[in-house]
Amino acid sequence: MTQDQQNLPSKLFRRDIPVWRDERVLRVLAQIISAIVIIGFFFWMVNNVVTAANQRGLSLGFRFLDDAAGFPIGESPIPYEPSNTFAYAFYVGLLNTVKVSVIGVILATILGIIVGLARLSTNWLVNRLALTFIEIHRNIPLLVLLFLWYQAVFLKLPGVRQSIVWPGPVYLNQRGLYMTWPRFTESATPFIISIISGIILATAVYLYLRKRRETSGKPTYYGAAGLAILIAFPILGWFLADGVPLRLDVPELSGFNFRGGAYMTPEFAALLIGLFTYTAAFIAEVVRAGIQAVNRGQLEAARAVGLDYIQVLSLIIMPQALRVIIPPLISQYLNLIKNSSLAFFIGFPDLFYIGRTTINQAGRAIPVFLLIMTIYLGLSLITSIFMNYYNKRIQLVER
Amino acid sequence: MTATTPEIIAPPQPPGPIAWLRKNLFSTWYNSLLTIVLLFLIYWAGSAILRWVFVSADWTPVVRHPILYGVGQYPREQIWRVGLCLSIASLLVGVSWRVWGGVMRVMVIFYAAALFLLVIWPAEGAALTSEIRLALGVIIALIGVGYLVGGVKFVRPAFVLVAWLVSLGVTLVLLRGFNGSALLPVVPTQLWGGLMVTLLLSVGGITLSFPIGVLLALGRRSSLPVLSIFSTLFIEVVRGVPLISILFLASLLVPLFLPAEMRIDRLLRALIGMTVFSAAYMAENVRGGLAAVPHGQEEAAKAVGLKGYHITLLIVLPQALRAVIPPMVGQFISLFKDTTLAFGIAVLELLAVGRSILQGNPEYFGRQMEVLLFIAAVFWVLSYLMSYASLRLEAALGVGER
After folding, report:
1. Using CA atoms, how far apart are residues B286 and B327, in angstroms rounded to an integer?
2. Given an 8 Å threshold on Cβ–Cβ distance, is A142 in contact with B337?
3. Distance, in angstroms, between B164 CA and closest chain A CA?
C-alpha cells in the first residue's frame, strides 16, 4: 500500500478534498498569513518610529551609554559622580532596585507569614487585626500608600534636633532613619572566617546526618547538631580574635546631622515600608490559603500518632502547605520587583527613575525604554527561574 | 426491642457572651495575655487616631472641592453632560437590580448612598449649587424608574449587558462632544479629571482588554506554532515589565509608532497602555478558564460534527468564561487601583487631582495626610465593595462546585 502511494503521488488527494478545505493546507496557510500580518504590523511600527526619529533628529543607537551622565543621583550603594557614564548610572539604578527588592522580599515574607498565621489564630482579636491589616492594604492603591508614607509620615517627622528616639538607639527624623549597626573591627578576620566555616560545616553535618537518619532510620539529631555548630563556631572565633571583633556603630548628633550607624533616606525608607507592607498583605492571604488547603485529617492523624505541635507544623503541615504556597508566592515576589518602579514617584533613584532622568537629559526615549524593559524582564526571569527550581524540588513527585 | 419514647432533644443553646469571650479571647493563658496587650494597644492607637480625625485634622481641602474630586476641571457650564451620563448609569443600575437581583442590591444601596452624600454635602462654597443637588436627587430617583423598567417582560439579562456596553460608548461621546456643535461643544480630555477619569480608565481598560485577552488566550493554546509563539511572547513580555513602563511607553512612543498625521490625546494613550497591560493578564485568566473546561466537552462536540470555530465559540468559551468571572473582577479591582499610575503621565485622575488641589492652594499647606486619606478611603470603599460583590457572584455562579 505504501508503495502504491509512492507510485501515485496524486493519490494524496484521492479523497477529493479540495485544496481550500484540506486542513493541512489551511493550517500552514493560516500560520503564514498570521505571521505576515504580525511581522508586517511590527515592521510598520518600527518603520514609523525610525522615520519619526530621523525627522526629529532623535538618535536610536546605544552609543550614548558611554557619555558622561551629568546628573547627580541622590543615593547609591557604590560611589557615583555625575561625570560617570550613563551605563554606570543605569548600573547604580539597577543596584538600588535590587537593594530595595531584596530587602523588601525578605521583610514582606516575614511579615506575610506572621499576618497569615495570625489570620488563622483562634484568638478573635488577633484574627480580626490581621484581617484589618490585609483589607486595608489590598484595597488601597500602592501609589496612594507610598505617598502616605512619604509625604504624610516621613516628611512630617520632626527635625534633626527633635528626633524621635527608639531603643537601639534608632533615630527617626526628617532626614531619614539612623540605626545603630554592628560593624566588624580590624581584628575581625578570624571571627569572619569562623562564621563562614561554621556555616559550611553545619550545612555539611546537617545534610550528612539527615541522610543517615533517612537510610538507617535511627535518630541522628541532625537539626540540633547543625544548630550547635552554627552557634559554637562564631563564639570560638570571637575568643580567637585578638580584641573585640564587633563594635556597635552608634549614630551621634554632630552639628546639624547624625554621623555613624546605618542610614536610610526618607525616600528609601518610605518605599521599603510601603512596598513590603503592601506585599505582605497579599502574601498573608497566600499563606493562609496554603495552610487551609492542607486536609484537616492530616493534622488529626499526626496528633493521633503522637507528634507534638511543633512537629505537626514543621513535618506535616508546612511541607504540604508549601506546595500550594510557592507558586502564588513567586508571583507576589515578581509583583514586588515590578512595583519597586513606583520609586519614581517619590524620588528614589531606582532603575526606572534613572531611565526617566536620562530621557529628560539626553532624549533617547527608545533605547532607554528598550534597556529598562529588558532589565526588568531579566530580573523577572531570574527570579522566576530561581523560584521555579525551588518549587520543583518541593513538589510532590508523582508516579 | 423496647420502644424508646420519642424524646425531643433541645438544640444546643447559642453560647452566651461570657462563653464566647472565654472561647475566643481567653482560651489559654497566653491568649489572655495577648488579648490584654492588644486591647491596650488598640485603645492607645484608636484614641490617638480618633483625636486626630475629629480634633487636629483639617478637612477643608477635602470638603471644599467635591466637584474637583469628581470631574476635575470639566467646564462647569457643561457639567450637565456628566449629570446626563450619571442618569443613564442610574437607569441601568435600576434595570440591572431588577434583572440580576442579589449581587446588585448592595451596589445599588452604595450607589444611591454615595449620590445622597453629595446631595447633603455639608460645606458652603463647595460649588455644589442647589440645582446640582436637585439634579442629583433626580438621578437617585431614576434608579427607581430603572427598577420599574426592568420589570417589563422583554428585558433580558443579555440586553442589559449590551445596554451597559452601549452606554459606555455614549458616555464617552457625550463627555467629549462634537466639533462645531452648539449643544455639545468639544471638551478636550485635558480638562477631564477626578474620579470620572479613574472610572473611565478602569472600565474602558477592562472592557477593551477583554476581547484582546480572549484572543490572546486562544492564540496561546492554539496548535498553530506561529500563533502560539507570538501570543506567548506578547503575554510574557507585558507581564514581565512594570505597568508604569508600559504607560510611559504608550505616552512617549505611541505618537512615534503611529504615522505623523495620527494625533492621539493623552487620556487615550493612557487607555491604550492600560488596555495592553490588562490584556496580557486577562489572557492568563481566560487561559485558566479554558484549562478548566474538561477535554471531553471538545471531543463530544467533535463527535457530533461541529466545526472548529463552532466548538470554540459555542462549547468551550461559554463554559470557560463562566469560570473566569471571579478572577476578572479581581483583575478589575487591581486595574482600578493601578489607574493611579496614569498620574505619572500627566493624566488627571483622582490622585493627581488631590495633589493639584494641595499644590494650587497655599492655605492647604501640610494637609497631605487628610487629602491622601480621603483618596485612600474612596479607593478602599469602591474596591472593597467590588470584592464583596465578587464573593457573592462566585457563590451565585457556583464556580468550582461541579
Report:
1. 9
2. yes
3. 25
Task: Show Cβ contacts of residue B301 under 8 Å, excluding neighbours closer than 6 positions.
Answer: B310, B311, B314, B315, B316
What's the grid cell of residue B209?
A: 482588554
∠ CA(A86), CA(A89), CA(A92), 5° rounding?
155
Q: Cβ separation of B338 and A48 shorter than 8 Å? A: no
Q: Are B199 and B86 in contact (CB under 8 A)?
A: no
- Provide the shortest C-alpha distance from residue B169 to chain A (in Å): 27
- What is the set of domains in chain B, with CATH numbers? 193-350 (1.10.3720.10)
Half-sphere exposure of B140 (CA within 13 A, CB side): 17
- Quick check: A144 and B31 CB within 8 A? no
Q: What is the ipTM of this complex?
A: 0.89
Q: Which one of B202, B232, B238, B244 would you mutate to disrupt binding with A, by most A Cβ within 10 Å of its Cβ?
A: B244
- Which of A23, A140, A381 to probe by mutation at the B interface, max B CB count within 10 Å? A140
How far is the C-alpha of A343 from the C-alpha of A313, rounded, in Å? 38
Pairwise CB contact (< 8 Å): B25 & A125: yes
- Joined together, the cell numbers standing for residue A95 give 543596584
- In this complex, do A152 and B372 lie within 8 Å of one another by their Cβ atoms? yes
Please compute, for residue A208, the number of CA atoms within 13 A of its CA located in the half-sphere on the CB side.
8
Cβ contact A365–B253 (<8 Å): yes
Partnered with residue A164 across adjacent β-strands are A172
Counting Cβ atoms within 10 Å, is residue A358 exposed (0-12), middle (13-18) or buried (19+)?
buried
Residue A149 neighbours by CB under 8 Å, 6+ apart: A270, A273, A274
Q: Which three cell numbers stand for residue B233?
A: 511572547
Using a CB-CB cut-off of 8 Å, the residues of chain A touching B239 are: 380
For residue A352, the chain B residue with the least C-alpha distance is B245
The phi, psi pair for A247, rounded to 5°, reads -135, 155
Q: Could you tell me the maximum CA-CA distance found in chain A, to the nearest angstrom? A: 99
Q: What is the pLDDT along chain A (399 residues), one digit of tens a residue?
A: 445 445 555 555 555 677 777 778 888 888 888 889 989 988 888 888 888 777 776 677 787 888 888 888 888 888 888 888 889 999 999 999 999 999 999 999 999 999 999 998 888 899 999 999 999 999 999 999 999 999 988 888 888 778 888 887 888 888 888 888 888 877 778 888 888 998 999 999 999 988 888 888 888 888 888 899 888 888 888 888 777 777 888 888 777 778 777 888 899 999 999 999 999 999 999 999 999 999 889 989 999 999 988 888 888 888 889 888 988 998 899 999 999 999 999 999 999 999 999 888 877 788 888 899 999 999 988 888 887 888 888 776 654
With beta carbons less than 8 A apart as the criterion, state whether A266 and A155 touch: yes
Cell matching residue A103: 530587602
Among the listed residues A39, A351, A38, A271, the one whose alpha carbon sits nearest the alpha carbon of residue B241: A351
Among chain A residues, the shortest Cα distance to B247 is held by A369
- Does the pTM surpass 0.90? The reply is no
Residue B289, C-alpha cell as written in the block: 478558564
For A365, the closest chain B residue by CA position comes to B252
| Strands A246-249 and A181-184, sheet pairing | antiparallel
Peptide bond connecting A169 to the previous residue in cis, omega within 30 degrees of 0: yes
Look at A126 and B340 and tell me if their CB atoms are within 8 Å: no
Closest B-chain CA to A147: B372
Q: Residue B166: how many CB atoms within 10 A of its CB? A: 12
How many residue pairs bridge chain A and chain B with CB atoms within 8 Å of each other?
148
CB pair distance less than 8 Å for B243 and A345: no
- For residue A366, what is the nearest residue in chain B, using CA coordinates? B253
CB contact under 8 Å between A141 and B351, yes or no, is: yes
Host H or E run for residue B383: helix B368-397
Q: What gap in Å lies between CA A64 and CA A58, rounded to an integer?
A: 12
Farthest CA pair distance, chain B: 97
